Amino acid sequence: MTQINTPSLPIRAGLVGTGFAAKLRAEALQSDSRSHLVAVSGHTPEKTQEFARNHEAIALDSWQQLVEHPDLDLVIICTINRDHGAIAQAALEAGKHVVVEYPLSLDPVEAESLIALAEAQGKLLHVEHIELLGGLHQALRQALPEIGNPFYARYITIMPQHPAPRRWTYHPEQFGFPLSGALSRIQRFTDLFGNVTTVSCQSRFWEASDYYKACLCTAQLRFTNNLIAEVTYGKGEVFWQGLRNFEVHGEQGTLVFEGDQGSLIRGEERIPIEVGGRRGLFGKDTGMVLDYLVEGTPLYVSAAASLYALKVADAARQSVEGKQAIAFYP
Prior knowledge:
This protein is 34% helix and 31% strand. By secondary structure, the chain is an alpha/beta fold.
């Protein structure tokens, strides 16, 4: 990533969104003397006003007003997936640094153009991937050498919800194709195992007017190192047991993570693996962004790496639509 000129301190930030992630971002910005939360915009005026009062910021009527605000150095995007690309483009064109929760865009072509725009503008474009900072991923990465050459991996996340909420995460257009909207499932694999050669995917939706009641999406990926991986993502009313399991099989052992419990398995031998917690990761990500802007400290993930994962997820979407495997060229 190209070195960015250091903004004057404190870095003046604006938030698009008033949900859970935005709340954690606001707290992180307020707790760091290098940053100051100036403005916020949201979907509902009443909630935006309340959020702004709670965090001593000004409430703006729209994200368009926020990105054009003259007293902002940094825009942090914490809203529905569908709008990420448009807001990021407007913020970059307005001369702002940008942080966006994954995905950067639901369209890989748009995402690629945004990375080029950030380079041309000399601005930071950071796509949050806090799963890479979390205890599970860090423990898995550290333990991988213990199992020799990995050849098969499987990651399953199932989230029962009764009833399924009528909110954007269950809306096809606002959330996007499941593996694009939930991009961290793909990003874990590409971060650990590199480039992909083929993608095959199937999905099913349980419809209910504009929102679905449940979705199930499962993809098989083959990597250039010949590892085969399966990723399954499901949520909604048809599920009755939650799962968050990640396993990697290698020629000298197997790694199994069930929830927050990890094990290294070799025959009868089962060695516990300590897994750190997930609390505080949005704050950690925010602090690393400030470190980068102020001191030039490298970030933990690049926008290009996020784009690559997005291209893999979009190949899965194409596989579903075409009912065939997709040859993927890095």
